[in-house]
Amino acid sequence: QVQLVESGGGLVQPGGSLRLSCAASGKIFSIYAMGWYRQAPGKQRELVTTITSGGSTNYADSVKGRFTISRDNAKNTVYLQMNSLKPEDTAVYYCNARIQSDLFKGLVDYWGQGTQVTVSS
Fold first, then answer.
1. For residues 53 and 41, is the Cβ–Cβ distance under 8 A?
2. 30-55, pLDDT tens digit by residue?
3. Would strands 10-12 and 115-119 be described as parallel, antiparallel, or unpaired?
4. Tens of pLDDT along 68-118?
């Protein structure tokens, strides 16, 4: 079984910064990609950013230049540095990882429990 545990959410003023972390644990053979999604009240879950095991990244247009994703493959951990936060960044942020649990199985998507990020004065 695989678990993703997130941390780092909270309340921040507009223009402030937060750093989210997500650690994967359990039966893991390899992790292909990790990333972050978010869901605001009344809206669908949307992609924020992803990073592959090789370090290739992808960002939503709304966060380019403000958010940075990074990854520590040795710790099976992904980070999201969020700067210049705006009220419209308020959402529950979910960690996602595409994991192969052993050599003979395919890739499976796993999700964290979500962490609340609130940007408000």
1. no
2. 999 999 999 999 999 999 999 999 99
3. parallel
4. 999 999 999 999 999 999 999 999 999 999 999 888 888 999 999 999 999
Tokens standing for residue 63: 């966060």
Distance CA 50, CA 55 (A): 9
100 vs 7: CA distance, rounded Å: 23
The position carrying tokens 């009220």 is: 87
- Pairwise CA distance, residues 89 & 66, whole Å: 11
- Please tell me the distance from the alpha carbon of residue 89 to that of residue 64, in angstroms, as a whole number: 12
**Residue 103: its pLDDT value, please?**
82
Q: How far apart are CA 3 and CA 32, in angstroms?
A: 15
